[in-house]
């Protein structure tokens, strides 16, 4: 197994008396598709917030590409190549589909304010590149035709896809997907699974997926980590995890196992 | 004057100023507690309280001219507080309630509108020139010791404020409505589900807050007898600072914050020549305190940190 | 025109030149209103960048206007000789260059204040930011009120009248151009992202604090220039003239025009300046009308009279 892309080493996050995440150790290798599951309140979104810089660990350390994962602000984390989507869709509501993706291209913008004013050749060249890159992404996800529509007018499934497109526009090496299948019907979920597999293969990136729908998780993940009450209780391939008694107990309670 | 006497004089004056800020700050903090919203127009309710007392006092003189000044003063105070409590409820009902579910910015702008409305209507009705507040309490020095002078006005104002604060504490801590207020400030949805009439409690909160602001207005008129339609702006901001200093949403904090700001402001002005700048910077003191709090301890002295759930 | 807004800029500048060439034919009263309109456009469009496009509610814009007014006036009153000498005497060209220098000096001073105020304040949100900026605006006013060398509370007079119709409109057009261009670029979409959802913007690599500060400083810069134009028009300035009520005047323009719509805000600035003049006789009722207008507007149509922002109309999930 190659050196881990992302590592958690005994990470703990404490809010007052509550340990949202406790002594968590895990690793994600380059280009791995890992699932993170657990009952509600297990700390899955907290893990995402730790990685994307919203929370800082009260104990333990995180490493990304071998170096400590610490940044003065979350936007720097995106600069390291870590992108995410959100549990409750957080698109830029007043912007069009195209502009939502365009915003995420700011990360790689070589020209800034002065160029926007002068609008010389260099400005238009880069704007053209951004347009092409954004449209390419949108077209892959079949959102290209809707580019100028306000993102609020998209269907729920389309909005989720747009959030993924937006995240991809930051050219990540690690993509965090926070419950992308939430609120989808079975057909949409099947499409989503194909989509995630496609993204994984085509863009050659590592994906950490938080999801409640077992079919989705078991169907696409190479490896699964199970959390309960902020602690890791199991880890392994889908088959291994499915049969793990501790996992069954966490979800269904003691009686059943 | 002997330096320690000077210090105590400033301290006494600072406390007098501070209780006024404290009474206004309570209204800010209580409304923030139940609605998570800063009632920008609250300072102007304080102004209305002053003018209400001005006119009540004038109207009552024929009927109560011979009565003892404490009785007359109490009637004027209660009338003003009731008047402003009603005003607060009306404002909440007409301007803020329709916007309960709207983004914060929209309500803030509405509050600014209400504030301007109060100020300019007052200017229209009462004229822009400052008025002289009637002498509700005939001047007497009750303490005159070693150069430190404390007037009867200062003592009475402080005493009534303490009574009001005790009353507020009792209401909030010992009554069912107080419990409802506290529940509402912690979790509106749960409170409603538990049978709390949110609208009624919010209206009551506004009524109490506005009543206290009115008291502040009356006391201000008693201690510093010049009143004008825009008198509420700067004290309103300072009282807001006081509420933040104490921890916004925290009732004892607001009272503490008010006193602290009053004392610090008076001390800074009292020693301005020593500190090396003009006394005209009086108003800047509260703003500087605000900036310091927000930079170093935004949850205030007694408040607790709130986290955004992602 | 989308591709080359520079053309629009040039046309606008030429138009201003032409109009002001005939300014002698315009009667004094109308001229007065036109100049005030121009100044208000600059103030409103610059504030709109902060409040509207970036969603940071600043209530201290008049403070930056004051800084620009006082700094440019101090230079023109106390330092005109050495600077003019540097420019080679005092012919019409030198005078105009001098004036531009004054305005830019005022703008830069205001921008520096904007930086000092913005860096600590912009970490705050919503109501807090509003009150802190209000506070800073008042601090600036208090400082000028207590600075005797620029007249203190009595004010600063005798400021030479350098402001012309041409300069006012030319600068207004430049302001619209600059801010319009900035916002309509990939970089500029960042401002709107900060407004819509800061957390998501950060996650997409947008440094929200830096964007807020940039908007704030740029807004302050133009407010400072507006202040300089204003001072060199009415020739007498007092600290009271730049108090929170002035800030609220500008905020009202931004709100009525629809926060985030440059066009809407410009129209609102024109409309409100004119309305202020019309209502000058009913001065007592003017602000009452505006206050009621604000309240009713927020309840019925928060996107302003002209702008169209669905994000203000949307309803949050009901919590009570």
How would you describe this structure to a colleague?
- The complex is a heterotrimer of chains A (257), B (310) and C (320).
- Chain A has 257 residues and is of the alpha/beta class.
- Chain A is built from 10 helices and 10 strands.
- A 6-stranded mixed β-sheet of chain A has the order 6-7-8-3-9-10, with helices on both faces. In chain A, strands 2-1-4-5 form a 4-stranded antiparallel β-sheet, with helices on one face.
- In chain A, strand 7, helix 7 and strand 8 form a beta-alpha-beta unit.
- In chain A, helix 3 runs parallel beside helix 6 (156-168).
- Chain A is globular and about 65 Å long.
- Chain A starts with a strand and ends in a 5-residue tail after the last helix.
- By secondary structure, chain B is mainly alpha-helical.
- Chain B has helices at residues 3-35, 42-64, 69-96, 104-126, 152-174, 176-186, 188-193, 198-223, 233-246, 251-270, 272-275, 282-296; strands at residues 131-132, 141-145, 148-151, 226-227.
- In chain B, helix 2 (42-64) crosses helix 8 and helix 3 packs across helix 8 (198-223).
- Chain B is globular, with a radius of gyration of 19 Å.
- Chain B starts with a helix and ends in a 14-residue tail after the last helix.
- Chain C has 320 residues and is mainly α.
- Helix content of chain C is 73%, strand content 1%.
- Chain C has 14 helices and 2 strands.
- Chain C has helices spanning 5-21, 28-53, 61-78, 80-86, 92-121, 126-145, 165-183, 186-196, 198-203, 208-234, 244-257, 262-278, 283-300, 310-313, and strands at 156-157, 236-237.
- Chain C has a two-stranded antiparallel ribbon with strand order 1-2.
- In chain C, helix 2 (28-53) runs antiparallel to helix 10.
- The model of chain C is unreliable at 314-320 (pLDDT under 50).
- Chains in contact: A-B, A-C, B-C.
Brief sketch in words of this structure:
Chain A has ten helices and ten strands.
């Amino acid at each position: 197994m190659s050196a881990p892309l992302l590592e958690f080493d005994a990470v703990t996050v404490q809010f007052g008396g509550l340990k949202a995440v406790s002594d968590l150790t895990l690793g994600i290798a380059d280009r791995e598709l890992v699932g993170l599951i657990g009952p509600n309140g297990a700390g899955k979104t907290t893990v995402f917030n730790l990685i994307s810089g919203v929370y800082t660990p009260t104990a333990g350390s995180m490493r990304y590409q071998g170096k400590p994962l610490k940044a003065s602000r979350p936007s720097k984390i995106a600069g390291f190549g870590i992108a995410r989507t959100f549990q409750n869709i957080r698109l830029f509501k007043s912007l069009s589909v195209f502009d939502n993706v365009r915003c995420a291209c700011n990360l790689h913008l070589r020209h800034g304010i002065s160029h926007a004013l002068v609008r010389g050749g260099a400005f238009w060249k880069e704007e053209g590149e951004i347009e092409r890159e954004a449209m390419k992404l949108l077209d892959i996800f079949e959102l290209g035709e809707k580019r100028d529509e306000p993102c609020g007018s998209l269907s729920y499934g389309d909005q989720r896809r747009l959030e993924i497109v937006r995240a991809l526009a930051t050219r990540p090496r690690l993509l965090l997907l926070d419950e992308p299948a939430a609120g989808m019907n079975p057909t949409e979920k099947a499409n989503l699974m194909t989509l995630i597999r496609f993204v994984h293969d085509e863009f050659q990136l590592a994906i950490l997926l938080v999801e409640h729908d077992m079919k989705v998780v078991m169907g696409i993940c190479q490896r699964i980590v199970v959390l309960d009450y902020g602690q890791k209780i199991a880890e392994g391939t889908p088959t291994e995890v499915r049969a793990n008694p501790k996992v069954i107990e966490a979800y269904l309670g003691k009686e059943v196992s | 004057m002997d330096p320690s006497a000077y210090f105590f004089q400033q301290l006494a004056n600072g406390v007098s100023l501070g209780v006024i800020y404290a009474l206004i700050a309570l209204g800010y903090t209580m409304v923030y507690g139940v609605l998570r919203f800063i009632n920008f127009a609250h300072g102007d309710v304080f102004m209305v309280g002053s003018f209400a007392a001005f006119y009540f006092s004038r109207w009552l003189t024929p009927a109560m001219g011979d009565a003892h000044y404490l009785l007359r003063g109490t009637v004027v105070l209660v009338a003003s507080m009731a008047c402003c409590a009603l005003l607060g409820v009306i404002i909440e009902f007409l301007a803020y309630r329709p916007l309960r579910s709207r983004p914060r910015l929209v309500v803030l702008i509405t509050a600014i509108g209400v504030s301007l409305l109060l100020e300019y209507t007052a200017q229209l009705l009462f004229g822009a020139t400052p008025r002289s507040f009637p002498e509700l309490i005939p001047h007497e020095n009750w303490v005159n010791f070693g150069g430190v002078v404390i007037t009867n006005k200062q003592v009475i104002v402080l005493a009534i404020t303490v009574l009001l604060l005790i009353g507020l504490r009792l209401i909030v801590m010992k009554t069912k409505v107080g419990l409802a207020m506290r529940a509402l400030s912690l979790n509106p949805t749960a409170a409603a589900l538990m049978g709390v009439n949110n609208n009624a409690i919010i209206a009551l909160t506004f009524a109490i807050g506005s009543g206290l602001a009115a008291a502040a207005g009356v006391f201000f008129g008693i201690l510093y007898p010049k009143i004008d339609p825009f008198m509420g702006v700067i004290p309103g901001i300072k009282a807001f600072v006081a509420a933040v200093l104490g921890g916004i949403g925290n009732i004892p904090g607001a009272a503490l914050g008010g006193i602290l700001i009053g004392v610090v402001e008076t001390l800074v002005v009292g020693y301005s020549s020593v500190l090396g700048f003009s006394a005209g910077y009086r108003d800047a003191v509260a703003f500087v305190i605000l900036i310091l709090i927000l930079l170093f301890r935004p949850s205030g002295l007694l408040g607790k940190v709130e986290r955004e759930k992602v | 025109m989308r591709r080359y807004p520079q053309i629009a800029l040039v046309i606008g500048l030429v138009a201003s030149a032409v109009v002001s060439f005939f300014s002698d034919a315009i009667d004094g009263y109308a001229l007065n209103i036109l100049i005030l309109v121009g100044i208000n456009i600059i103030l409103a469009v610059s504030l709109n960048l902060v409040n509207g496009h970036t969603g940071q509610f600043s209530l201290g814009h008049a403070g930056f206007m004051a800084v620009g007014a006082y700094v440019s006036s101090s230079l023109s009153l106390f330092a005109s000789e050495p600077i003019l000498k540097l420019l080679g005497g005092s012919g019409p060209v030198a005078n105009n260059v001098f004036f531009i220098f004054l305005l830019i000096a005022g703008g830069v001073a205001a921008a520096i204040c904007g930086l000092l105020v913005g860096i600590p304040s912009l970490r705050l949100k919503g109501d807090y930011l509003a009150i802190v900026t209000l506070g800073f605006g008042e601090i600036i006013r208090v400082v000028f009120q207590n600075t005797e060398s620029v007249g203190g509370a009595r004010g600063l007079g005798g400021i030479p009248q350098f402001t012309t119709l041409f300069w006012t409109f030319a600068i207004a057009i430049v302001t619209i151009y600059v801010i319009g261009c900035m916002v309509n670029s990939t970089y500029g979409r960042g401002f709107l992202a900060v407004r819509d959802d800061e957390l998501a913007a950060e996650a997409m690599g947008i440094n929200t604090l830096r964007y807020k500060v940039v908007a704030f400083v740029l807004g302050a810069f133009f407010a400072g220039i507006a202040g300089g134009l204003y001072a060199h028009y009415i020739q007498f300035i007092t600290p009271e003239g730049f108090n929170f009520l002035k800030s609220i005047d500008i905020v009202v323009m931004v709100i009525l025009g629809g926060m985030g719509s440059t066009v809407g805000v410009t129209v609102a600035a024109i409309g409100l300046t004119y309305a202020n003049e019309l209502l000058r006789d009913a001065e007592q009722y003017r602000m009452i009308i505006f206050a009621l207008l604000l309240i009713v507007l927020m309840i019925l149509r928060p996107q302003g009279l002209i702008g169209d922002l669905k994000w203000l109309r949307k309803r949050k999930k009901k919590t009570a």
